[in-house]
Every structure is written in structure tokens, then in C-alpha cells.
Design brief:
The chain has 13 helices and 17 strands. The protein folds into 2 domains: 137 residues, 3-Layer(aba) Sandwich (Rossmann fold); 237 residues, P-loop containing nucleotide triphosphate hydrolases (Rossmann fold). Bound molecules: adenosine-5'-triphosphate (ATP) and magnesium ion.
């Protein structure tokens, strides 16, 4: 009887792919790569061969029905693949680009299409983040294989940058905490993020900040208003601030940028302000995957991270609170900023929803903002809902004086 051991795997060398594919592609067999136009099929095929040559010294053959050999040589030179040079040498790996081009030559087109569709459907069930990077080619982000770091959880507390907030959190944040700060526009998210960075810089830690909501000059001006010299910190090399519209890249590319910056700078602190801006370019599921991946990288590096978000969606209320809830589950500390009205004046409230591994002040407190930053004041009785994503926390706020209401109320 034939030996039926585990299938031997051939490592592709494509970033992250072999981890997802349980070691690589089945050796000595054919693998079908499906995908829509522009999704990266040709790149996968070329890179499969190129990595085989570069990493494992395995020659390859590329058969294409779609592009000229000259185009292939030219298009992939920027990834560091000297194809013309390789052509002088002979083959272990074969890439056929593409099958649809081959199948058009067969008479029973219906049968071929049916089979292709069946395979494609089975494959698309296996979704993960992946992106095509100008420097590294095809990069697969293997979410199902993320591990919690095996290093012990930190007992060290660090300052959030706001003394009153440290007190509410039971004496500062754990050094490896991932903090989610939710709040509507103008509530103080960017302020808290800037103070968080300033505390890291004061402790001599390299800091990394991604601003998706505002430009560098705008951010510098706000920081100056609170006595924080962003420009000086950036020039000293201790701080790296990246301001970009979310639309300039896919959410996968933003993740790659963040991971690369973390690897380059080895920061003690990371800020993303705000996650909500990324909702413009990503589905809720893709955004959640993005956060899972960012949180995993931050945890691997023992970084204190502050992620900000809007509490609920003005346009898609049925989706956003769900995401906000899921985000809160991924993080260690959840803080909510909100508005309420008192005697005709808009006031801010702050509440700590949770702090993993620590006691915290459960009271909803009034918060004020001035030229020094944020100050946390007396507890406010009568606020009934402060959950992230609850409609109570967004404009339009409910009047504290309106009949039957003792503070912000959920809208329904
Ligand atoms: N120098 C200052 N002194 C006093 N208050 C200030 C100063 N600079 C800004 N503010 C106020 O601080 C508040 C918080 O601003 P911040 O930028 O942190 O809000 P945000 O939650 O990030 O809002 P958005 O979602 O719109 O970015 C604003 O309402 C602003 O009016
Ligand atoms: Mg802001």
C-alpha cells in the first residue's frame, strides 16, 4: 500500500503566505490561484518563482498567455527580480499565467467555467488580509496565526500624560496597555493623544503617531496651544508623526506602514488618531482585522498604544456601535469622552469603562479643557449610559434639563 503521510509542502517564500498555507504549496502538485482583475495573480506567480530562485536556489519556468516576456522582465525589475539574468540559467517551479487563457482553447467552455467557479468559491472562503507592496511584493498578513506574546504582562505603570486620568486608571497605565479612547468630535481625543505622546517623550521613549484626521501643521498648532513642541520632538528623531488621508492607501497598506514604522523606530508608544477615519476606506470586517493586526504587533513589541475612535456612526448606526464594542474587547483600557448639557452650557464627561488587571474609578466625571490640557473634575450623578458606541455619547446630545431626563440618554 502506498505511504499516506502528510502532504509535503513547498515553501513559496512569499511574505506571510507559507504560515497561512501550513508550510507552503503542496509539493509536486498543481495549485490554482483565483482572483479578480488586478488582484495580484500574476504577481503571485512571478513571485513564487522569484522567491524560489532567491531563497532556495530553485530554478523556475514562467509560461504566460497574457503578457510578453519583455513586459514581465520589465514590470518586476522594481521588486529586485533580475529576470533577464535568471533566464540564462534552467526548472523546479512552474507558473502558468493564466488558466483562463488556456481554457478558452477547450471546446466545452461551460464545463471549464463551472469547475473554475467551484474552485474559486472554495478558495474565497479562505479570506485574510493581503496587500501588494512596492518594496516587498505580495505580503500576506496571517491573522489566524497571530500569537499572544509569551513575555510576562508588564507590572510597570506609565503616565497617560494626564495626571487626573492616571488617578482614575488606578495609578497610570500598564506599560503594555492598549487603550481605546472613544469620543465625538471636539471632545478631546487628539488632546489626550498629544498628552500621551508628550509623556512618552518626557520619559525618553521614541513615539510614533499616525494622524488620519488632520495635517501636520494643524496638529503642530494644536500641540503648541497645549505647550507641546511636536516639531522639536520630530527634529530630535524621538518622534515620528505620519499625517495622511486614509484614502491614500488601502487599509492593508496602512497596516504595513504602521508595522514597518514600529520595526524601524522601536517606539515605546503608538497613537492612531482616529480609527474612525479608516472606516471611509474599509468595511467593518476589514477595519476589525486591521485593528486585530495592529494590536498584535503592538503587543509583540510591548508598546503602550492609544487608539482613538468616534463612539457611534452618524450614517451607519447599525454597524458602528458593534465595531466599537468589538474594538473595546480587543483593548485593555476603554475610555469614553462625551458631551452633556447643563444649564445651557455644553460640558464634557469622561468615564473609564474598563481597565484590565487593575482597579479604576468607575464614576463618570466632568472634564474641562484649557490651555494646559484636560482636567478631570467632580463625579456627575445622573448620567445613565456611557458605553462606547451608545447614542447618548454623540451629538445631538440630550438636554440634562429636559423632562424625564437626568443627563444624556440613549436614543433608542
Ligand atoms: N489651546 C487650547 N485651549 C483651550 N482649549 C482648546 C485649545 N486647543 C483646543 N481646544 C479645545 O479642545 C477641544 C478638544 O480638541 P481635540 O482636537 O482633542 O478634539 P477631538 O476629540 O480630537 O476632535 P476631532 O474628532 O474633531 O478630531 C476642542 O473642542 C477645542 O476647542
Ligand atoms: Mg482629533
Amino acid at each position: 500500500m502506498a505511504d499516506v503521510g502528510p502532504i509535503e509542502r513547498l515553501r513559496t517564500g512569499i511574505g506571510g503566505f507559507d504560515q497561512v498555507a501550513l508550510g507552503g504549496l503542496p509539493a509536486g502538485r498543481s495549485t490554482f490561484v483565483g482572483g479578480t482583475t488586478g488582484s495580484g495573480k500574476t504577481l503571485f506567480a512571478v513571485e513564487f518563482l522569484a522567491r524560489g530562485i532567491l531563497l532556495f536556489g530553485e530554478p523556475g519556468v514562467f509560461i504566460t498567455f497574457e503578457e510578453t516576456a519583455q513586459d514581465i522582465r520589465h514590470n518586476y525589475a522594481s521588486l529586485g527580480f533580475p529576470i533577464a539574468q535568471w533566464e540564462e540559467a534552467g526548472a523546479h517551479r512552474v507558473s502558468v499565467n493564466s488558466l483562463s487563457a488556456v481554457f478558452t482553447r477547450f471546446a466545452d467552455g461551460g464545463l471549464v467555467r463551472h469547475e473554475m467557479h467551484r474552485i474559486d468559491k472554495a478558495l474565497t472562503a479562505l479570506v485574510w488580509l493581503f496587500t501588494i507592496d512596492p518594496r516587498d511584493g505580495l505580503v500576506i498578513i496571517p491573522l489566524p496565526f497571530l500569537n499572544y506574546p509569551s513575555v510576562p504582562a508588564s507590572q510597570v505603570r506609565v503616565s497617560s500624560g494626564i495626571t487626573d486620568l492616571d488617578q482614575m486608571c488606578g495609578g497610570g497605565l500598564y506599560k503594555d496597555a492598549i487603550v481605546l479612547l472613544a469620543g465625538p468630535s471636539g471632545a478631546g481625543k487628539t488632546l489626550t493623544a498629544l498628552k500621551f505622546i508628550a509623556a512618552g517623550l518626557a520619559a525618553g521613549e521614541p513615539c510614533l503617531s499616525f494622524a488620519f484626521d488632520e495635517g501636520r501643521e494643524q496638529l503642530r498648532r494644536s500641540a503648541n496651544g497645549w505647550g507641546i513642541d511636536l516639531r522639536g520632538a520630530e527634529e530630535s528623531g524621538l518622534l515620528r508623526v505620519e499625517c495622511d488621508y486614509p484614502e491614500v492607501a488601502s487599509v492593508e497598506d496602512h497596516f504595513l506602514r504602521i508595522r514597518r514604522a514600529i520595526e524601524d523606530l522601536a517606539p515605546g508608544r503608538l497613537v492612531i488618531d482616529t480609527l474612525s477615519a479608516l472606516e471611509r476606506i474599509a468595511s467593518p470586517r476589514a477595519l476589525l482585522d486591521f485593528v486585530i493586526a495592529v494590536v498584535a504587533v503592538a503587543r509583540q513589541h510591548g508598546i503602550t498604544a492609544l487608539l482613538t475612535s468616534m463612539p457611534a456612526a452618524p450614517l451607519t448606526p447599525e454597524i458602528r456601535p458593534l465595531i466599537a464594542g468589538e474594538l473595546a474587547g480587543l483593548t485593555d483600557v476603554a475610555i469614553t469622552l462625551s458631551y452633556y448639557e447643563l444649564a445651557g452650557e455644553i460640558q464634557r464627561a469622561i468615564a473609564i469603562i474598563q481597565t484590565r488587571g487593575s482597579a479604576h474609578d468607575p464614576r463618570v466625571r466632568r472634564a474641562t479643557i484649557d490651555g494646559d490640557g484636560m482636567h478631570i473634575r467632580e463625579p456627575i450623578p445622573g448620567i445613565t449610559s456611557v458605553l462606547p458606541g451608545a447614542a447618548a455619547l454623540t451629538f445631538p446630545y440630550r438636554s440634562a434639563d429636559s423632562p424625564g431626563s437626568r443627563g444624556p440618554q440613549p436614543d433608542g
